[in-house]
Design brief:
It is built from 2 helices and 5 strands. It has 84 residues and is α+β, with helices and mostly antiparallel strands. The chain has one domain. The strands form 2 sheets. The protein has a 3-stranded antiparallel beta sheet with strand order 3-4-5, with no helix packed on it. It has a two-stranded parallel ribbon with strand order 1-2. Helix 1 packs across helix 2. The longest helix is centred in the N-terminal third of the chain and has 13 residues. The termini are far apart. The model has no long low-confidence stretch (mean pLDDT 76).
Length: 84
């Protein structure tokens, strides 16, 4: 998880983009952002398992993924590729 939170630091310095994560993941990222003075700039959004949300033109669902860190989710575009 440390690598992921470190990536957020570099991305937020140059790009103003929201950070999506579970409550647990955002707590870890929150600490790292605070340490580096980037917390005020961060737009952190909690992902609720099983709930879909709109991200730009996409409808995204965050699904469980296998990882060494608990409670992680991966994004899945809900739009089937055969539909236009």
């Amino acid at each position: 998880m440390r690598t992921t939170s470190a990536r957020c630091l570099y991305i937020l310095r140059d790009l103003n983009a929201p950070i999506y994560g579970t409550r647990f993941t955002l707590a870890l990222v929150h600490k790292r952002l605070e340490e580096h003075g980037l917390l005020e700039k961060a737009d952190m959004r909690e992902v609720i398992p099983g709930r879909k949300l709109e991200v730009g033109p996409f409808e995204v669902e965050f699904i469980s993924v296998t990882h060494s860190t608990i409670d992680l989710r991966g994004p899945r575009d809900s739009h089937p590729p055969w539909e236009s």
